[in-house]
Amino acid sequence: MIVLMKHDTAPGDIEKVMEKVRSLGFLPHAISGSQSMTIGITGNKSRIDTDLFMSMSGVEDVIQVSKPYKLVSRDIKREDTVIQVGEDEVGGKDLTVIAGPCSVESRSQILEIALMLSEMGVKFLRGGAYKPRTSPYSFQGLKEEGLEFLKEAAVAAGMHVITEVKDTETLPLVMRYADILQVGSRNMYNFSLLERIGEQRKPVLIKRAFSATIEELLMAGEYVAAKGNYQIIFCERGIRSFDPLTRNSLDLTAVPLVKKLSHFPIIVDPSHGTGAWDLVIPMSQAAVVAGADGLMIEVHPDPSVALSDGFQSLRPDKFKELLERLRVISPIVGKTVRAPQSSTLVSNN
Amino acid sequence: MIVLMKHDTAPGDIEKVMEKVRSLGFLPHAISGSQSMTIGITGNKSRIDTDLFMSMSGVEDVIQVSKPYKLVSRDIKREDTVIQVGEDEVGGKDLTVIAGPCSVESRSQILEIALMLSEMGVKFLRGGAYKPRTSPYSFQGLKEEGLEFLKEAAVAAGMHVITEVKDTETLPLVMRYADILQVGSRNMYNFSLLERIGEQRKPVLIKRAFSATIEELLMAGEYVAAKGNYQIIFCERGIRSFDPLTRNSLDLTAVPLVKKLSHFPIIVDPSHGTGAWDLVIPMSQAAVVAGADGLMIEVHPDPSVALSDGFQSLRPDKFKELLERLRVISPIVGKTVRAPQSSTLVSNN
Amino acid sequence: MIVLMKHDTAPGDIEKVMEKVRSLGFLPHAISGSQSMTIGITGNKSRIDTDLFMSMSGVEDVIQVSKPYKLVSRDIKREDTVIQVGEDEVGGKDLTVIAGPCSVESRSQILEIALMLSEMGVKFLRGGAYKPRTSPYSFQGLKEEGLEFLKEAAVAAGMHVITEVKDTETLPLVMRYADILQVGSRNMYNFSLLERIGEQRKPVLIKRAFSATIEELLMAGEYVAAKGNYQIIFCERGIRSFDPLTRNSLDLTAVPLVKKLSHFPIIVDPSHGTGAWDLVIPMSQAAVVAGADGLMIEVHPDPSVALSDGFQSLRPDKFKELLERLRVISPIVGKTVRAPQSSTLVSNN
Amino acid sequence: MIVLMKHDTAPGDIEKVMEKVRSLGFLPHAISGSQSMTIGITGNKSRIDTDLFMSMSGVEDVIQVSKPYKLVSRDIKREDTVIQVGEDEVGGKDLTVIAGPCSVESRSQILEIALMLSEMGVKFLRGGAYKPRTSPYSFQGLKEEGLEFLKEAAVAAGMHVITEVKDTETLPLVMRYADILQVGSRNMYNFSLLERIGEQRKPVLIKRAFSATIEELLMAGEYVAAKGNYQIIFCERGIRSFDPLTRNSLDLTAVPLVKKLSHFPIIVDPSHGTGAWDLVIPMSQAAVVAGADGLMIEVHPDPSVALSDGFQSLRPDKFKELLERLRVISPIVGKTVRAPQSSTLVSNN
């Protein structure tokens, strides 16, 4: 159930509603829009009598949500939610470009990439330190050392760190280094992990599982929100299909669907979504035009020697070309792509 | 095998090579590029000795094609093939916009739509007269009468007709009315129909079957080309997947893949591809940016009373909005969208 | 709509009901059960008034069928329909075993196989003469010559011929040779072909398309039945899925589903369904126990030299082993497998 | 790499080989067959020189395994591995029948079911205490109390407990109550959980994820085996597909495939695999005949009031009928199904 508060409600009235919810043994979730506040109620097993709240001071309306997802639903908030990451945003006017290698491979590798990306105007650095791999015998990431290298590189380059949380055991550690936590496709149904992350107050990017429906993706977000973490970013990364020509089948329709059904941002990972670097550029452009709030791109200085996923990584020059194209395209859908740092300096290429 | 002719080869030399191919009992296919000619050879059961041609006058090179598709492959022609339809083109600089109702329902319905679309700048009119339907008890189209209404409307509006050929029996009839023949998803594996169409000299649009791989789609084109019809347009219209929220899963990656592997154009049908009118606009934009040569959109003056597929048809005002957006976006990928006719006139209704 | 006639209705009363249906401009379908007759009515665009028939002599009840498939539905006939093929049956107590090579390759090849299979007790000989192939350059079958060889071999061996009808053009020819017409997976949505076959009075086996739902498979049967051909056999042959280890994903659940929803028999093709000969034996057994009325198995004297599908064909000794296993298993589900002819002779190897 | 020891090798020689492996910094895995021992080696990053072991006493052969799965592969052990659970076995001659409700709902519910199942001859009791649910607001199981009820019921009925481990946090708790740990479909890619379970010495049943390939399923087992737990049971439970008529698409071909590729047993869950109780009986029979080592069936005294998955649960009488059918069918594939207790005793409660 949702309690819509009036535009100019006094904080005290809001608190009274929340107290009322708690007194009934339920959980109140204060979701703030640009002008008013909505209070989502979870934890109830059956319908709550709307009259309990309708008469309270400052209450505009009380609404039952019929969809299985409540707190991530557009029903609770008409406007887009913008996630704040330092001075930057996800879901706002800036197109969020997340880039970096599949895995952190060494201090110098990640530092080199970070500085290069930063110069191109990229603010979000990705890199896997704990890698869930199909085989127990494959490279599993540099682990804590990888996190250190990643953070160090990001700080040096003035970027934010996004990296995967593999399990609840390493969550506290990853919390120390990451600015955005990433839940990988294989963990989208790992509800215990989602709940632990829900208890944190840090943005989380949730990747769609290999064959998850859009509703299941939204429900994964609901697990996080139900615990009080309302900084959720969804990520489409391709579904499993039958065509051997592509690693996955990038489902761009997920973008307008998620935007329609949820107030949280959605970004697209065309690197995993296609598995082929030469499909990354056209599909990145398409994703932005379909309404994506951002992109997550694998970039590697020398894809041929990457420890994982080299075939789908862009070389720096190709990535630069992609950014230039995005700078042209994004304004059409109301987004902007940050200029390269060099352009703010005297000699602009 | 492919015989590449030199840039300035005399027509006589080309004919000699083709004669040589025929004399060996094989079929020569002359595929002309902007500056030179390529001769594809089919009908051979085993490898042909390249020396047979290398020494002939005007021959630049002789190449074995390892891919299963030969004549539709980029290997035989590096440049894009542009299909001429009257004074208009598919695969050229103009974004091909095909629009109209799912079914031709009456003379007045299709005429009204045609005039409206034409005024908006649309040159290609779609409308089903022979409808393959899952149920034998569903509306199967107005048949020949539908073709007449469609052609009449197109002529009145100055448009080209594209309509589905359901079977070989009605092919001669459809040939009389259509400017572009359409092979529906259910007929993509109907090789007998493809061969009959291959014997025609009229453009054909081939829709991807529900779970066809890209290679199978290209092979359907190869069936047409092998019979000498080199006016092929591929069409992505969504694959079958597991998510009940959409009718199909629009596979936009097919666009850059087909552009990479084939010299023939590809267009996208986001109406069937999503099955929901409010997803058509974002996915149309995404398709164009991914590199599609055109779009096929279901438009109906009153979707709520359409005899088929109303839920995925755009109302005229929404379609007009889509065209306006496409006019802004297309130039970014080097395409243009025709201006509305009304805009060139003084009084704009 | 269905008109159920009383057990002991006079033929004249049945004819009167059928005449009444015709007089209304609809089509009557007389479907006979073991004790009573049901008259299915198709061709109506809207609901028919049940009172029109309820008062007629011999009428037991009048029922509206809510499912999209009417004549193939269990609603119209509670008992299993048994298809008569010469002295043999499909859908009765005998497990229908259809065997033979993927393609008829030569007179001696098919004769040798037929005699061998016949000796093992097999009554249905399969063999492709018109082969729909993904590539126009692949072996397309021996065509009419293949049909001749096939028929000749079947006659010599005392077997029935089942072979694929590729298109309406060759249907009359195939009709002359085949005892059961086969509609391949690629033609399951070829409604024009289904309608032409519906006008014949010969059994037809319809293979499920690569990604057809069970309802679509039943609707393909409905197309045949709506034209008056009530001798339909459905065939599960694997759906398209994501695992590269198998050619298709054999969906055995289709068997109990089709048995539940339709009165027509269903058989299983584990050769195409798995694409691997060593999976054919376990999956054949499983199919029978799941309730299949029969099996269609690719058998080749020397799979390594087969012109098509060798990797999924059983060698004769393996096929013999399969038959022996089926003879043990089938009785458990109330089916019997014909004994080898040799067992009825004095000493035959 | 695999070191095959000779039939009559002295334990000391085996220990020397294992010591040698450890001295190289790798992990030795002693996998015992009926007559000889095999030592699998993991932890190496590159190929190991086979000569290092070939000359050692007792060594028969040294083999490189090319498949990505090593310890679960048939290459390391030709015979079937039989998992011992108390006095009972999984993968041996007895068909393993696991039955019980989806969720433990109350002490009396699970006790009643356990006694009833035990009387029917069932030795393995299933019941969820920690339930991973798509919605955070759905019933999540009785948790530790559920485990207590489940264990108590199993002890009273003389049965073994199999129950799902939802996460690493609750693993120690579940270890105290479960005889077989279950990894659910949603956790098949949860490598951290698999590794923790690999460190235990208790049988684990791993359910295939919604769209996991067979190779990925085997790799999940490899994660467990690589940590030294060689008591693995695979479980096919249906893959995600496109047909709305069934909850999942039960992929029975997985059974002979896993039996071919791995020495570990595989069982089938037709309840989740079909999502419809009336498909459970035919598909259970089919699974056994396809070679499954057992079945996992949801049984509920009153499915209409079950807190989860009622629609796919068998009523006790239907389950009893299934067992009777399995007793007839299983011997054909060399398996036996335990007789009901009541049939062997004069008066058993």
Could you explain the architecture of this structure?
The structure is a homotetramer of 349-residue chains. In chain A, strands 7-8-9-10-11-12-13-14 form an 8-stranded parallel barrel, surrounded by 6 helices. In chain A, strands 2-3-1-4 form a 4-stranded antiparallel β-sheet. In chain A, helix 6 crosses helix 7 and helix 10 (277-289) runs parallel beside helix 11. The longest helix of chain A has 15 residues, at 143-157. Chain A contains 11 helices and 14 strands. Chain A folds into 2 domains: 2-63, Alpha-Beta Plaits (2-Layer Sandwich); 83-344, Aldolase class I (TIM Barrel, Alpha-Beta Barrel), CATH 3.20.20.70. Chain A starts with a strand and ends in a 20-residue tail after the last helix. With 349 residues, chain A is α/β, with parallel strands linked by helices. In chain A, 32% of the residues lie in helices and 17% in strands.
